[in-house]
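pasting for ref
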Amino acid sequence: MNIAYVCADFGVAVFGHKGASVHVREMVGAFSELGHDVQVHAPTLDEPGGEAAVTAAQRARFESRLGPGKVEFVHVTQEGRHAEWLDELRHAEAMIGRPTRLRQELRNLLYNPTLRDRLDRTLVAGPVDFVYERYACSGSPASTPRACTASRTCSR
């Protein structure tokens, strides 16, 4: 089976050290062990500010445990213009001397259509039998990809 695994949470680095990161890797590894091909879509693959050697070791450990199924990681980044808008908000926060949650909330809202569009391309380009979306408070991209309304099965 071909599986699209979606993790829309910026706070969950696929190769990070948090429990949620471990959950992503374990689920993907389990799918692979069962012989399924998995394409992981995520905004954060490596731990921000993490040491390259630690990240490389984490990746190597993960890859050494994979089963017969193929695993591909798709780093779905935010659009450049969105990053520019967020930088302007950061500047505004600096001017008022107080951080707000507005930048984080806006980043998440702007990211949803970007990720949904990438998923649409994946669903149209190749056979995807199942979409597994890891819950994210701020995201719901896999719940409504336009390509899901065709003959494909999508599940949350």
